[in-house]
């Protein structure tokens, strides 16, 4: 519920051009993909789903991005995929 409220606030900020991303240096695989996969590993195992992570970037590749927002997107994607797989 809190994530939905926060998402709605972000949409309103985007519409009024007041949204300010919090950019930071982040390793795609180590800081985002691995933790997201780990977060869902038990749930995936319980419904007999195998989570497989692939990237086109070498380990340690860094980008400037809004880590929290990208993490939210990844969580939503994995959550939705697992709901469809049940």
Describe this structure in words.
60% of the residues lie in helices and 9% in strands. The mean pLDDT is 84. Strands 1-2 form a two-stranded antiparallel ribbon. It is flat. The protein is mainly alpha-helical. Helix 2 packs parallel to helix 3.
The rounded distance between the terminal residues' Cα atoms is 22 Å
- Tally of individual domains: 1
Give the number of DSSP strands. Answer: 2
Radius of gyration: 15 Å
- Overall 3D geometry? flat
Order of helices and strands: HEHEH
The percentage helix is 55-70%
Order of neighbouring strands in the sheet with most strands: 1-2
Mean pLDDT: 84
Oligomer: single chain
Supply database-style keywords.
86 residues, two-stranded antiparallel sheet
What's the structural blueprint in terms of helices and strands?
Elements: H1 2-15, E1 24-27, H2 28-46, E2 62-65, H3 67-85
Antiparallel strand pairs: 1-2
Helix pairs in contact: 2-3
